[in-house]
Amino acid sequence: MQVSVQEEGFEFGARAEAFAQNNNAMGAIVTFTGIVRDADQGGLVAMEIEHYPGMTLKALTEITRTAMDRWSLGDALVIHRYGRLAPGEQIMMVATASRHRKDAFEAAEYLMDYLKSRAPFWKKEILDSGTTDWVAAKDSDEDALDRW
């Protein structure tokens, strides 16, 4: 299990390939990467992601451990970035490995839902108009957690 909270970017293909190579006894590997998208109203220049390092790493490690145990995963990888990110840049990556695809998919979805709504990150959108807006939690993101 590996959890990383980092400012620098990552090479998705290389990380996914290394994860798969390290888990070649598993029957299923699921990967997902989140990308900075434009603001709802358009004009996004950047997204600034802030966090409290000790709290963030601890929270992500705990939820990854929960996923490992709940779905009998052989391995899991969570990477989440912070700092100033431009549209199109990768924000995060989740990878899960299990003997069976259902467990790998469900664990990956669980981790993604958690990262979207409960991970201790604060996101601010910087728009080309010069305004900045904190990203508010969405009811739909909270609702996604209800199924777990």
From TrEMBL:
It is an enzyme of class 2 (transferase). InterPro entries: MoaE_sf, Mopterin_biosynth_MoaE. Converts molybdopterin precursor Z into molybdopterin. This requires the incorporation of two sulfur atoms into precursor Z to generate a dithiolene group. The sulfur is provided by MoaD. Heterotetramer of 2 MoaD subunits and 2 MoaE subunits. Also stable as homodimer. The enzyme changes between these two forms during catalysis. It catalyses: 2 [molybdopterin-synthase sulfur-carrier protein]-C-terminal-Gly-aminoethanethioate + cyclic pyranopterin phosphate + H2O = molybdopterin + 2 [molybdopterin-synthase sulfur-carrier protein]-C-terminal Gly-Gly + 2 H(+). This is Molybdopterin synthase catalytic subunit. Belongs to the MoaE family. Transmembrane segments: none annotated. Pathway: Cofactor biosynthesis; molybdopterin biosynthesis. It comes from the Bacteria. PANTHER family: MOLYBDOPTERIN SYNTHASE RELATED (PTHR23404). Gene3D superfamilies: Molybdopterin biosynthesis MoaE subunit. Its EC number is 2.8.1.12. CDD domains: MoaE. Keywords: Molybdenum cofactor biosynthesis.
